[in-house]
Amino acid sequence: MTRSTPLNRSTVLDAARDLFAAQGYRGTSMKDVATALDVRAPSLYNHVDSKQDMLFAIMDAAMDRALGALDEALRGVDDEAEQLRLATESLVLDFLRHPAEVTICNVEVRSLDHATRPAIIAKRDRYARRVRSIIDAGCASGRFATATPQLAAYAVLELGNGAKSWFASGGPLTGQQVATAYGEFALLVVQDAGH
Amino acid sequence: MTRSTPLNRSTVLDAARDLFAAQGYRGTSMKDVATALDVRAPSLYNHVDSKQDMLFAIMDAAMDRALGALDEALRGVDDEAEQLRLATESLVLDFLRHPAEVTICNVEVRSLDHATRPAIIAKRDRYARRVRSIIDAGCASGRFATATPQLAAYAVLELGNGAKSWFASGGPLTGQQVATAYGEFALLVVQDAGH
DNA sequence: CCTACCGATCGGTAGG
DNA sequence: CCTACCGATCGGTAGG
């Protein structure tokens, strides 16, 4: 009888990801990760340097993936309204497809070593700044009409979490249907009431 | 020289709250809490039963406070649009005034004992259901016009987190200004695009 | 990949 | 309110 999953860096990180998301970084032991893979804890160190190494690798890859998806979604699109809609859909779909990574990125920044935390924060800020700059550009061109563009940006960035919560609660819509609805919400948020 | 803060259940819970919010429940030791109060760890047990007791007490009180604030905000208000605006403002102001408790309620449900977790989940669901029922009522009366009322409810519930993030980043507006803006956003979200 | 083991820290108790 | 201490568990290493 062979092991259900081969043991390598990728499968170790996948197991750690699921446990970190469900129980938290501090609430997960190396033994927990090893047990999920049906090995003993010391064996993990053949594939990862440390528990902290796993956390950073998971978060860094998740941020790169989200940033790449945003780039891809916006490629060749000039209209600010279309940019905002597509950016929101990209964000929502990323949250729905990768809820474990997103939970970890939201919660475990505080568990990162002081040495590596700034690198993750920088990528998170880059993501936020892209959304904010779409909204600012739309306000400058007159395409959007909100008096509080900064607040609108934070509201839009939070929509992914709303979609994730809804999806986790077992709602019946497909991911694309949810993403489409939230893309519409984002466009509404950048319009002042009454317009 | 006397101690800066008197030691009683209330001050112990306040210290635990700040540390749980900043470092997480599992990332905070009884010694950490005791050190913040300038005593030794065993002394805490004169005021609380256990670490788990502190977590539950903090979360339960926070949920009761939020539910009470929502009741207060909606008292005597019949129009669904005004209800949704006031509910959103109440939610946002609660998030801005009590960011530590809100962070704990968002993150540490998984750290609750299996025996006490359902009680907290029930209160959180009660809160969500009130917001959802406002939106459903507004859709039924024709006051709102969204094709996806369930998704709108999750989006509105998430707005408080957006406000909290924005506030934590050092934005220059007052809490009431942020709450007012997010109250407007909520009303926009329950209108279909183009209406 | 394993067993055996390290020092450190954990929540909590005894007993005053 | 303290000191002293308990068993359990932690991340990680030695050595094969």
Any key phrases for this structure?
mainly alpha, 195 residues, DNA-binding, homodimer
Low-confidence spans of chain A:
none
Number of helices of chain A: 8
Helix content of chain A: 55-70%
| Major sheet summary line of chain A | none
Most extensive interface: pair and counts?
A-B, 36 and 37 residues
Oligomer: homodimer
Average predicted local confidence, pLDDT of chain A:
96
- Number of beta-strand segments of chain A: 0
Secondary-structure-based class of chain A equals mainly alpha
End-to-end separation of chain A = 67 Å
- What is the alpha-carbon Rg of chain A in Å? 19 Å
What portion of residues of chain A belong to β-strands? Answer: under 5%
Task: Describe what is shown at a glance.
Two copies of one chain form a homodimer. Chain A is built from eight helices and no strands.
Description:
The structure is a homodimer of 195-residue chains. Chain A is 68% helix and 0% strand. Chain A is built from eight helices and no strands. Chain A has helices spanning 9-23, 30-36, 51-74, 80-97, 99-107, 117-141, 149-168, 175-189. The first copy, chain A, is elongated and about 60 Å long. Chain A starts with 8 loop residues before the first helix and ends in a 6-residue tail after the last helix. The mean pLDDT of chain A is 96. The interface between A and B is large, with 36 and 37 residues. The first copy, chain A, binds a DNA duplex (16 and 16 nucleotides) through residues 7, 29-31, 39-43, 45-46, 50-51.
